[in-house]
Design a protein that fits this description.
The complex is a heterodimer of chains A (about 190) and B (about 450).
Chain A: H1 3-22, H2 27-33, H3 55-59, H4 70-77, E1 81-83, H5 93-108, E2 113-119, H6 126-146, E3 154-160, H7 171-177, E4 179-185
Parallel strand pairs in A: 2-3
Antiparallel strand pairs in A: 1-4, 2-4
Helix pairs in contact in A: 4-5, 5-6
Chain B: E1 4-8, E2 17-21, E3 46-49, E4 54-55, H1 58-77, E5 81-83, H2 102-107, E6 112-122, E7 125-134, E8 139-148, H3 153-169, E9 178-185, E10 192-199, E11 206-209, E12 215-220, E13 226-231, E14 238-243, E15 249-251, E16 258-264, E17 270-277, E18 280-287, E19 292-295, E20 303-308, E21 314-319, E22 326-331, E23 338-339, E24 346-352, E25 358-365, E26 368-375, E27 383-384, E28 390-396, E29 402-408, E30 416-422, E31 429-430, E32 436-442
Parallel strand pairs in B: 3-5, 3-6, 4-6
Antiparallel strand pairs in B: 1-2, 2-8, 6-7, 7-8, 9-10, 9-32, 10-11, 12-13, 13-14, 14-15, 16-17, 17-18, 18-19, 20-21, 21-22, 22-23, 24-25, 25-26, 26-27, 28-29, 29-30, 30-31
Classes of the chains: A alpha+beta (about 190), B mainly beta (about 450).
Chain lengths: ~190, ~450
């Protein structure tokens, strides 16, 4: 539904409300004068049921972040993190979808560069997890490159289990902490 | 009779220590000589009496008391000794150059007696003497005199502990040593990690590097004056060297890639580590003088956590080339790769014992973590020493009898702590640190 139609409905509604408000006029005056008013033939206003369009819907439509910004990257890609199974670094279909959108965005803004940080959950030893995080970051890089992003634009780093996003010690927290995070840098001053 | 004199200069904040094996009589003829077998895990600790050291000067009274306490604490922490309460003592020695009244000490069941004294030679020079007595054998087992500056009294106490331990167990001690570690603070999701160092008993803890960058896995050079560690200072993980006396810091090499898991070779001349290229980690070795680097593994699997055997001829490392993380050994040149772990679960973070016969590791299985040891040659005789939610990263005491490791507790408010366990699987203890701590690495015995 476009803006015009919404305004048309609103207009129709306001008209209908004002018409109602004016009907109970002074009846006595009408009775005494007895004037004959020639019938005016008007087309009855279309009685399409007035949809009570919520006013809220009309007021503000979010525009989204400014295209080409760091925020826009996450907004357009849907996610700036993809997640992995325990001790795995292969990309699941959902992750590939996210990365395809990340690649599209990166291909649209060729001056942006990307840092991919690989992360692991706490149930591994420190050095092994650093190596595992590196594998995850590299899996993301390889996929983005396969989608046309120049390899020179992507830096990978592993944080092993040092940067959990959830401090809990349960399946849900661990699942969140097994991820690769893509952060874009715009312009050359970073 | 033994007349030996050695003198070593120790730089930096450790003052000069001169140990003189004194010309005290040394009788080894006694029949029922006191000996402690440390291979059994010793269910019954040996009762030892360590009275306050004698002090002839008010300036040294405090040190005389504190030294006896530090020695008692060292020996008790080993799990091999129980220091008798001073209130029980019957004899009060006034001169350590006389034989003690053995009957008095037998009465309170002391097996050994340590009597010592401090002689103040000048405002900044002390002589510390001690004698170790076998109460039942009625003989002196050891007698040593040390000379030092007053501020160095703790190290002398640890040296006395080492001498007692060595005389009674037959094995080198480990008390005059330090631990470098990572001091942790803040919530798990925004953890701050800094390099710190402390004496083996937790005293004199101080920050080595107070930066904001993530740092991990510090490890000592055999000189105990230098450490290698990991820092994210450049944005990615890189191996650094730090001279703990001068504070001089150096980024190792100029690799465009992530480097990690550094350890010194036993001769201190090279450094072994992993480098990551295209997501794949392999083991490399760098000659620290020539600065030349050689790649030792070429596998497409994760190859990480290398550790040299004490003779420098072999390397144990962690690899998942067989599908799961396991332990492998190879020659120092990368040849002759052999898998040595065959138990259940995942094996990571190996560390070769300074005695050469064993390799300590981390095992995880069914959601539990264990510190274990395995025969370095055969991969057999596996023993799990600990069990918890998260134990990892074993490091050996200089004599190879005790293992320190990181223990993490569950949950959002989980802690990170340093614990110790004896090779026997007994004497599990939490090591006192000022706050949360991880990644301990034990120094060699200090020079």
């Amino acid at each position: 539904m476009n803006e015009k139609m919404k305004y048309a409905f609103l207009g129709a509604m306001i008209f209908a409300l004002s018409a109602c408000a004016s009907t109970p006029k002074d009846m006595s005056a009408a009775n005494t004068d007895q004037q004959i008013i020639p019938p005016v033939v008007t087309r009855p206003a279309p009685i399409t049921p007035v949809v009570r369009a919520p006013v809220r819907e009309l007021s503000a439509v979010p525009l989204g972040p400014l295209p080409g910004t760091v925020d826009d990257f996450k907004y357009t890609s849907g996610e700036d993190r993809i997640y992995f199974a325990y001790n795995q670094y292969d990309l699941v279909p959902v992750a590939r979808d996210v990365l395809r959108r990340q690649a599209q965005w990166l291909n649209m803004y060729p001056s942006a560069i990307l840092i991919v940080g690989g992360n692991a959950d706490e149930r591994g030893t420190r050095e092994y997890n650093l190596a595992l995080g590196a594998r995850r970051a590299d899996a993301v890089k390889a996929f983005l490159v396969s989608q046309g992003v120049a390899p020179g634009r992507i830096t990978t780093v592993s944080y092993g289990k040092e940067r959990p996003i959830d401090g809990g010690s349960n399946e849900a927290a661990w699942a969140l902490n097994r991820n690769a995070h893509s952060s874009v840098l715009i312009g050359g001053n970073s | 009779m033994q007349h030996m004199m050695k003198s070593k200069r120790i730089n930096g904040f450790i003052a000069t220590v001169t140990a003189v094996l004194a010309a005290f009589f040394f009788s080894l003829t006694a029949s029922a000589q006191l000996e402690i077998d440390i291979t059994k895990g010793n269910a019954e600790p040996t009762l030892i009496a360590i009275p306050d050291f004698l002090s002839a000067h008010t300036e040294t009274d405090r040190i005389a008391k504190d030294m006896a306490r530090v020695i008692s604490d060292d020996l008790e922490r080993s799990g091999l000794f129980d220091a008798l309460n001073h209130d029980l003592f019957i004899e009060k020695q006034t001169d350590i150059n006389y034989q003690p009244r053995f009957a008095d000490w037998r009465l309170i069941k002391a097996r050994a007696l340590v009597s010592g004294r401090i002689v103040r030679e000048s405002a900044n020079r002390l002589k510390v003497e001690f004698r170790l007595w076998d109460i039942y054998g009625g003989t002196q087992l050891d007698g040593i005199r040390f000379a030092t500056t007053p501020d160095n009294w703790r190290r002398i106490a640890h040296k006395v502990s080492d001498a007692i331990y060595k005389r009674l167990t037959g094995e080198a001690g480990y008390f005059d040593s330090r631990i470098v570690y990572v001091a942790e603070s803040g919530p798990k999701t925004n953890r701050r990690k800094q390099l710190a160092i402390m004496d083996q008993d937790g005293a004199n803890s101080q920050t080595l590097l107070a930066g904001a960058d993530l740092v991990l896995t510090p490890r000592f050079a055999p000189s105990a004056q230098q450490i290698t560690y990991l820092s994210w200072e450049t944005g990615t993980s890189q191996v650094y060297l730090l001279d703990i006396e001068t504070g001089r810091r150096e980024l190792l090499g100029n690799f465009p890639n992530m480097t990690l898991a550094p350890r010194f070779s036993p001769d201190g001349q090279s450094l072994i580590f992993s480098m990551i290229k295209r997501g794949n980690s392999d083991v490399y070795v760098m000659d620290l003088r020539a600065r030349s680097t050689r790649r030792l593994t070429t596998n497409s699997a994760i190859d990480v956590s290398p550790s040299f055997s004490p003779d420098g001829k072999k390397i144990v490392f962690n690899s998942d080339r067989g599908g799961t993380p396991q332990l492998y050994t190879m020659n120092a040149d990368g040849s002759n790769v052999k898998r040595i772990s065959f138990g259940e679960g995942r094996y990571t973070a190996p560390n070769w014992s300074p005695r050469g016969d064993l390799i300590a590791f981390t095992n995880s299985h069914h959601g539990r973590f264990h510190i274990g040891v395995i025969n370095a040659q055969t991969g057999r005789a596996e023993r799990m020493l600990t069990d918890s939610y998260l134990d990892e990263g074993p490091t050996w005491s200089p004599n190879g009898r005790v293992i320190l490791f990181t223990r993490g507790t569950r949950g959002i408010r989980g802690h990170s702590e340093i614990w110790s366990i004896d090779l026997t699987g007994k004497n599990l203890r939490k090591v006192a640190t000022p706050g949360d701590a991880s990644d301990p690495a034990w120094s060699p015995i200090l020079p």
